[in-house]
Amino acid sequence: MTRPDFTELDRFGNSRSNRWGARITNFLLHTQEGNGTAESLAGYLNNSNNGVSYHYTVRDGIICNVVDTDYASWSVLDANSRTINLCFAGSRSAWSRQQWLAIDRDLRIAAYLAVTDARKYGFATTVITPPYRVVDGISDHRWVTDALGIGDHTDVGPNFPWDVFASYVNEYAGGAVAAPVRNAIDDKAAVSPWLGKRLTAGENTCPDKVGRWAQFERGYIYWSPASGAHPIPDTLWDKFAGLGWEAGPLGYPTTDHTVLKGPDGQNWGDVQGFQGGAIYRRYSQPAFWVHGAIRDHWNRSGFEAGPYGWPVSDEQPFDGAAFQDFEKGRIHWTPKPTLGVLAAGPLDTPLADAA
Q1: What are the backbone angles phi and psi of residue 271, rounded to the nearest 5°?
Q2: What is the per-residue pLDDT across 221-231, written as a single tens digit (0 to 9) for each?
């Protein structure tokens, strides 16, 4: 993509934290609520006693690199580990649309940086505008407040020209990716019309530098050489994400999701297989991960239609063993000769061995 004209200054400081392996999922925009320049704001941020920082400050075609994007800035509380943050120096959330359009050059620069970092770290270039939703992509501080429920900031404000900014993002995100991978995901998308509109331009590279993924209106498609391309619907996505995406114990999806039907023939819930087990979700209930010997036992009993019913918890480690709760019972696993349980209530309760 063609780089917009800007001056880049390194003003790195120590107002930062380790990401501790968290995957970067979003690029966020901020206002300063003051009259600083890119350099004066960077100087303020570099004083760690102030307790705030951003990865970039931008004004009048000048970019200051304040925090290396491999580290977390101090911008959005509990969302710091998963985000990259840029502040428009001298800006205010009360600005009118006309005031924002007066810094068109800086809007272009911010869009360019967002797409560059999305390509580097493998997250979506989707521009997430109000009403917000929890997906990978590019948004602002208010997204953290409204979608993630963290903090109370509302910048960049109601008059930010999202349409103009999104057009710049789309312009810079227009590059193609390698055809073999793109074709695998495209082929799966072509036979999965329920996914809706494609939101990702091309594909994003997973942290392992092997797999690829693309986002759609109602889900994602993940691909790896070992597992092939499979869509993950939004109904199962939160559980997959909560377990660390493909880098977590689930790994990549190995099957498409299946809609399960109840005894009355009505749709009952969803299941999808992964390298490290399966996600089950009964409609109107949370999703749960079933794997290993407990999953094998449950499968032999007849899955969700058997005597145990649907899972109602993930596997729980206990005293060197593990158990998992289901609607009508509990399955225990232990490598030890014995496992003690107390019969109390509808489910037996495991008791730690005193030995």
Answers
A1: -140, 145
A2: 998 878 889 99
Sequence-ordered strand ranges (E) for the chain: 7-10, 26-31, 56-59, 62-65, 83-88, 137-140, 204-205, 212-216, 219-224, 228-233, 258-261, 267-274, 277-282, 287-290, 316-318, 321-326, 329-333, 340-344, 347-351
Options 3.40.47.10, 3.90.226.10, 3.40.190.150, 3.40.80.10; CATH for 7-172 is: 3.40.80.10
Which residues are CB-neighbours of 142 under 8 A, at least 6 positions away? Answer: 130, 132, 153, 154, 155, 156
Best CA proximity match to 171, nearest among 131, 112, 225: 112
| CA–CA dist 268, 257 (Å, integer) | 13
E strands, 275-339, where?
277-282, 287-290, 316-318, 321-326, 329-333
The answer to whether the Cα torsion of 119, 121, 122, 128 is positive or negative is: negative
- φ and ψ at residue 3, rounded to 5 degrees: -75, 130
pLDDT band at 114 (very low <50, low <70, confident <90, very high): very high
Query: How large is the angle between the packed helices 104-121 and 162-172, nearest 10 degrees?
Result: 50
Helix (H, G, I), strand (E, B) or coil at 104: helix
The domains of the chain are located at 7-172
The pLDDT tens digits for 50-70 are 999 999 999 999 999 999 999
d(CA 187, CA 209): 21
Neighbours of 262 (CB within 10 A): 13
